[in-house]
# Entry
Amino acid sequence: LTVLNAGRRYLKAEDLSGKVFVTSGLGGMSGAQAKAAVIAGCVGVIAEVDEAALLKRHKQGWLMEISDNLDQCIARLRDARKNKIALSLGYHGNVVDLWERLVYELDTTGELLVDLGSDQTSCHNPFSGGYYPVQIGFEEAKQLLSTNPGKFRTLVQESLKRHVAAINRLADKGMFFWDYGNAFLLEAQRAGADVEKRGANKTEFRYPSYVQHIMG
# Structure
């Protein structure tokens, strides 16, 4: 319902075939995103740093395909988008790399390859394993979390700033991003990312929440 309503509200589209939804998280509640994309008829690309979560969703049939190669992901996304194939593709990697690759594609080809975007990392708990920084790998990050939590926190905040910068670039070209109620925008703001709504008070974000704007 969230994906369908986002399409209706922001894309003015009842039919999401050929549209691309990019997000992250395949554990817990966020695991439903892959299935939702296919039910809605769009192309869903969902990033997940934890291979165990990725493989679990694939085994369950909630995730149709998986890849750890960004070149393959972009090629598959382009093909499914062009041919209007409903697809859920799991990218085993950090979502910041995925967002930045989409910016690269925009800059080099002029193509905006994503229509809808969100995030379901556990940003209500970003410094204890809910969000993993893009600068280092998953296993290295887990080790750093236990040995140097202060450094881990710094990397997370730097990663959040990069995360938002890429989203902002794509949103400026017409991609519609919303907050999934996971404190992503709040933690990004605390990290110093550019998420405040222009001309509004500091408690308002430039992107909507799915609660008020989509489901409400």
Q: What stands out?
A: DSSP finds ten helices and six strands in the chain. The chain has a mean pLDDT of 94. The longest helix spans residues 149-171. The beta strands are 20-24, 43-48, 65-67, 87-92, 116-117, 176-177.
